[in-house]
Amino acid sequence: LTAGMRRYIAERDWLTVYQLPPYAPDLNPVEGIWSVLRRTTTANRAFADPRDLITAVRRGLRQLQYRHDVLNGCLTGTGLVLAPP
Description:
By secondary structure, the protein is an all-alpha fold. The chain is 51% helix and 0% strand. The protein contains four helices and no strands. It has helices spanning 3-10, 29-39, 50-64, 68-76. Helix 2 (29-39) crosses helix 4 (68-76). The longest helix is centred in the C-terminal third of the chain and has 15 residues, at 50-64. The two termini are 36 Å apart.
């Protein structure tokens, strides 16, 4: 942390800061979403060109946006949020 950031944090007693590692895929819910896409939308498929890949990923993301159970699972898998009761 920079000196300015440390000062900013120290001046706010209500603020709790956790230093996370620079690269932690297990704490990133997006990694779970990419994993789902790799196992579904893009699995066992050869793409004709980059545009074909982009179209497939967008289609997969559009389908996932309605799968709240899958998205919540990606968040819960990080351990940063509690599973719903």
